[in-house]
Amino acid sequence: MCFHFMRGSAQVRCPVDILSVPSQANSTRHFLDDSHPINALLTSVAFSFPHNISGCFAGLEGRCGANSLLKETIMKFCFWRACTFLFLTVTTTNAWAQSPEIAISGNGNNITLGSAAPARANHTDLGVAPVGAGGNARTFTITNSGNADILLPGTPRVLIGGANAGDFGVTLQPSSPVAAAGATSFQITFQASALGLRSASVLIETNDLDENPFEFAIQGHGVSLITDTDSDGMSDWGEQQLEALGFDWEEDQTGLVSTYFAAASSNGLYNQTQYDAHRVTGRSDVVNAPNTYGLYSLSQIHVLNIDAPLLTKDPVTGLFKLTIGLEKSTNLNTFSHFPMSAPGTVTLNTQGSLDFEFSSPDNAAFYRVQAGPSNFRWASSVLAFSSQFTVDAWSAAQALGEPDTYPAYGDSSTAWATADPDAPNEFIELGFESPIPISYVSIYETYAPGAVSKVTVRNPTTGLWVEVWSGVATPAPATARIFSVTFPRTSFPVDAVRIDLDSHLVPDWNEIDAVSIGQ
Question: Between 49 and 468, whose confidence is greater?
Fold first, then answer.
């Protein structure tokens, strides 16, 4: 850059070494030192600094003020040898004046942009998780050290990709925008679907010009509940759960494990051998004397005649209530919920029986009636998902509650759709209130059906996931359908269902309108 000055009527080049205009906030550049004769003249010069660009040239801070703001066009006077007054114009830009600055950390340790080496220190290595069972959740923090808001425009804001993306779910999305000096958090949960190393990547779109997108690698290890990688006598999963006490599933800590088991035994806790021995004895006790444990024998169950339930009076209202559920089937094998809101007439006849007359809305040829408390549930909450098309229309939340698209067929914003129409390893996890044992899961597919490849359910007591159905995704006829999977009734109440899709095997968006469970 060349600077010219006026002295009288002649144009003169100023020899002062001005390297550059500051390239970022708070930078300084020397062009006059304190001993230069011009400094004596600057005391009479009035400066105004209306724009938001911080800092002053070194040597002038005392006169500009340490916290002054530079003007886009700064006028200063200089003096050199025989020259009298020289006029200098320096033009700057304020591109850096309003700038966000993103940083991401885990476990209090920084995560480097583009990091391809996951580490346990910053939680990018999420540790181990038993295959098909519980998982590990890790929390990450986004901070803004800049002076402008960080925007996270992605949908979703944190996106999981890579080879084993289906094993990692964002169970808490960050908020946006993130104010200057502010922070927000997001959470990733690792649930292994197979043994061994499981890898994925995290991608976050930002408005930070030099860190967009912010991407880094993550990983976890799938293990069985009895795997002991370091051969120290405690399973990998056990050591993961005791991580806060210094246990490390990759490091042989035979001494520490022995001390732990000795302390457990001295405090009346069982090791595996002791537990197995007592379990056999305890099971025999329960079988031989069930009433001792508040349980009924098989003969006592028969006497109760469960098929004819007794009605009891509500102590608050003083009323009796009979709940009847209808289910329909075309083959006497797979039954699905038949809403009582269907067109029909309910009457109490002269014999004291309840009559319900209705027409069949589809090809169902068989119906069954079950009396007692409601034996089905609609999904009531979204626990996790691989992706969603937007945060509103076609979002995961569109799969909650009763159907609002079915029986219509087509690409509808009132059903859940993934971000990509044909990506592999898509999934959604839905929660259900008032858990009950179940024998079926009904999935209302309203566009490009046939992509469902696996259904698993969760035991709320143990937190473990159990697979109840799996199959090969295959395109189905272009019509809305209720895809019901049946299985022996679970021995535990179910509070959540996970549905996996192989969308790459069924072209177009595979949309789900609702999910129900029942007995």
Answer: 468
